[in-house]
Structures are given as C-alpha cells and as structure tokens.
Amino acid sequence: MNKRRILIVGGGTAGWLTAAYLAKALRLAERSHLDVTVLESPDIGVVGVGEGTFPTIRSTLQFLGIDEGRFIRETSATLKQGIRFADWGHAPAGGERHQFFHPFEAPFYAEGINLVPYWLLQNAAARLPFAQALTIQQRVADAQRAPKRAHEAPYAAPLNYAYHFDATKLAGLLADHARQLGVRHLEGTVTEVALDASGAIAHLGTPQHGRFEADLFIDCTGFRAELIGRALGSRFTSVRGQLFADRALACKLPTDPQDTAMQSCTIATAHEAGWTWEIGLNGARGVGCVYSSDHIGDDRAADILRRYVGAGSGEDLAIRSVPFAPGYREQQWVKNCVAVGLSAGFLEPLESTGLVLIEAAVGMIAEMLPHSGPMAAPARRFNELMTARFENIINFLKLHYCLSGRQEPFWRDNAARTSIPDRLAELLEEWRLRPPGRFDFVLDTETFAFFNYQYILYGMGFSTELGAARDDFPQVDEATRLFAKIQRFADRALADLPSHRALVQHFNAQR
C-alpha cells in the first residue's frame, strides 16, 4: 500500500490540534501507511489572542483522550459558563451601566410550552433579564459558582461550560499528546514552495531538512498564510465593512492566589471604539483592548487598556500589539493544500470563535479525506461549508454591535444599515414580530444556535412585539409557575455547587 503523507506546516494551537485530531481520527498508530508530520518554525511563537473557548472544546478534548484534570492543570485553565457584557447597550451615565449575560446553557424548555413569548409579553420594566429568567446559569456565574461538582465525570456537568486557558500551554499539551499518538515533529523554516504544472504544491524546501513532499499540505502558518495565500494565491475576503475592529492590545497580569474571586465567565466591556476582554486564568488574568484603527489610535487604545487594569501611565505594563485583518480566504482548500486557523481567516476574539473554526475545519478534513487517489475532490464542499460558517459568524458578531444605542462614531457606524449584512437585516425585520427560532438556521454551517441569538437580542434590549398575538399564548399561569420553578432551581444550584475557585483548586491538587 502506498504511503499517505500529511504535512502540517506550523505549530501553535491550530497545528497541534489538527495533528492530534487527525492522528486520533485516522488511527495513525495502527496504520503504517499513514504519516502525519508537523513542521514547526523555531522562530515563530504562538499568537494566543483567543484564550477562551466554546463548549464544543469539551467534546474535542474527550475525543482526543486528554484527561480533563490534566488539561486544567497543564494549561492554567478555569471554567467558562458564558460572557458577561457591560456597557454595550449604552455608555455609562449617571451611575447606570448596561449589563447582560450570554450563558452557554439553553433556555429552560418544558413540553408543550415555550417560555420565550411569555417573557416577551411581561412588563419590560419589571421582568427579570432574559438569561436570568430562562436559565439558572446567570445566577450561578454571578455567584462565582462552578458549573459542576468535583465528583462528576470528566467533561460532564449539570450546566454547559467551556474553558479559559493559556494558549501557549495548550499548544504544548497538544504537541505532547499528538506525538504520543504517532505524529512526527520537526523544526524547520520553509524557504521554498514549489508548484507543479497543475498548480498544486509539488514540494516544500527547508534549509534544515531539505525537501518535503506530501499528499496533503495543511497550512497552519497563521496570519502569514505561507501556503494558501502567498504560494497558491487564494484571495482574501475582507469583512471590514461589517466588522470594524482590526487591532488588539493584550497583556497578562498575575493574580493573588488567595483572592477568593474567580469569575467563570469572560467579561466583555464596551468602550468608545470597541471592547475589552477580561479572562481569568489560574494565577493570572488576560486583558485585551479590541478596537478599530479607523476610530481611535494606538495610543488612545493603550490608555483605555491601562485605565481598565488600573495601571498608571508611567507603570511598566507588558502590552503586546496584535493587528489583524477581519476576513477569510475565498478558498480555504486549494488542490492539495487546506488552511486551518488564522491562515484560513480571522474575525475577532468576540465569542471565542477562533478555536471553534479550527475544530470545525479539522473535523471535516478527517471525515472528507479520501483513502486513496487525488485529494482535491473534497475541496469544493469544504470551501462551501467553511465559507457559510464564516458568514454566519459574521452575522452573529455584528448583532452585538448594530443594536447598540451608544453615540460614539464607532457605534453609530455599526448601526448604519449599510454595514449590516443583508441576511442579518432580513432576520432582524422578522424578529421584530417573532423571536428567533430553529428554522432560521442550517445547523451544519452554524456555530451558534437560535437561542444564542435570543440571548444577545434581548440582552441588548431588542423589542419583539407580540402584543397583537397575546391571545395565542393563554398559558400565563403555567408560564408563571415555570418561571418561579427556574428560580427555585437556581436557589438549589447555589446551595449545591462549589465555588469556581474551589473546583479549580480540586483539579490542581490531583496528580
């Protein structure tokens, strides 16, 4: 049987997650005719702007066979139950701040009754916030409780969750695991990309190891996109007209291990030209300022970041600048080369979509990879699905911006109809008369479910007018009983669940 060779160019989270996933999915250790190699440049570090994840990462880590406790210990991880948004609806004024929570848990569902219309028909001035009324997770996160107890099975919990982690440490963990699964690791710098007569990659050249040939080349070279962009010329589709942010300033600050406060959510705080993230790790917190360079300069962004972390202008603060172009490659799989991670595209860190896109891409590669013959055949379907996924994420991210009532130029530009994708604009018109539903989306190309849109819409104060249909929702007493039941469940969860810090300490005490 002919040798089937897969060469992954680039390490980091994208390269090593791809390597580990393919090694596991293709049963590399059992198949001598398969070869998976990671060629990693020793001169390029991990970007690591995305240190938050989506709940899909639990299934991925479990599939790989990585113990949850080990993952938490070795990546300084904490658990993440969602995102707390501050100041997105309006700027702070008169001591009032707008806040809402986007939990990972789906809204409470009871057979025969959908509570969302009943919440919409309640008095807007008196009702609980949407996420608090329909889930227990907001109260759990607000109380800094964990989504699970120490005795529960790895990756299982009463409440849905993801993680915050140190990106550099995650890449190291994945590298160790991939090598254990049979992946070969070489360090070298690509100095030549030769194409054959058909335009496919014939070989790569390196000064350290000479020539590399492969059946499939996977480009994990980050923003440089050495193979898919520079060599194969796949055009870049910019979405700067919809998503304006194109810069981030990031820093990491140590935290006192005796500090009892440990958030189990990302905190996203809007500012005049973008937003700041705050991610709590075990022993540190990552803070970053995301902004549009068309609306403020780098110095102003640095001031916003310093003010957020409480640092004075003369205080030494190690700030890393990460410029990025929001968009994606028009074709992410060209002939015998497929791009994964930043080389395929990047939007912005909001909602932690970077790692989700890596997971989606490598899952499709593993399933679509032919056992023999040319590897160009799956490219068309892969490109179609990944393009749709990027476009749908763009719609979801734009939703956070275009509903704001903030008056700074950045936010007014985001609210302009010309900056809103047509599909999102159409849905917003429909949602003025009904809440988002499952038939609005095709699941195979979606990262976010219809209820994720509900959390953002109603957290931002969007109005769905159901007054004319009030008589179509006669189960008011039953809905009232169920709303009260959710709050009793929340009371019980607060009594039963450990603090987030206690659970993280439990994992770190194990060896």
Could you provide a short overview of the structure?
This protein has 16 helices and 21 strands.
Keywords:
511 residues; alpha+beta; FAD/NAD(P)-binding domain; seven-stranded mixed β-sheet; six-stranded mixed β-sheet; 21 strands; globular
Choose one word for the global shape: globular
Strand order of the biggest β-sheet: 5-4-14-15-16-13-17
Class per helix and strand makeup: alpha+beta
Mean pLDDT: 94
CATH superfamily of the domain at 4-47 and 66-77 and 164-240 and 326-380: FAD/NAD(P)-binding domain
Q: Quote the distance from N terminus to C terminus.
A: 43 Å
CATH fold title of the domain at 4-47 and 66-77 and 164-240 and 326-380: FAD/NAD(P)-binding domain
Q: Helical stretch count?
A: 16
- Number of β-strand runs: 21
* Helical content class: 25-40%
For the sheet with most strands, the description reads: 7 strands, mixed
For the record, the CATH architecture of the domain at 4-47 and 66-77 and 164-240 and 326-380 stands as 3-Layer(bba) Sandwich
**Whole-angstrom Rg:** 24 Å
Tell me which oligomeric state these chains represent: single chain
Poorly predicted runs: none
- Using the coordinates above, name the CATH class of the domain at 4-47 and 66-77 and 164-240 and 326-380: Alpha Beta
| Fraction in beta strands | 15-25%
